Amino acid sequence: MAKTKQLTVPCENRPGTLAFVAKALGDMKVNGVNFLTTTSGAEGSGQLLVDTANKAKQALEGPGLSYSEADVLRVAPRTPLHARS
Questions:
Q1: pLDDT in the model for residue 84
Q2: Which residues pair with 21 in a beta bridge?
Q3: What's the pTM value of the predicted model, to 2 decimals?
Q4: What is the per-residue pLDDT for 71?
Q5: Could you tell me which of 63, 66, 70 has the C-alpha nearest to residue 9?
């Protein structure tokens, strides 16, 4: 199992917030491997696994988005999702 960084971005639960984060990452050519969002009332967060954590951090810092980071294990499924029926 490979270690990777998970970036957690706190954000408001309102239309357009996820698109704003995704655009910041896309503008820096950061590929999202996994993206999980959660909300509670007016607040939420996104947990991101990306191909290049350093570029992702720069992409988030550019528009002033805060984040925290944690070391996590990246586990690949035995059968790729696109091959399952």
A1: 63
A2: none
A3: 0.81
A4: 92
A5: 66
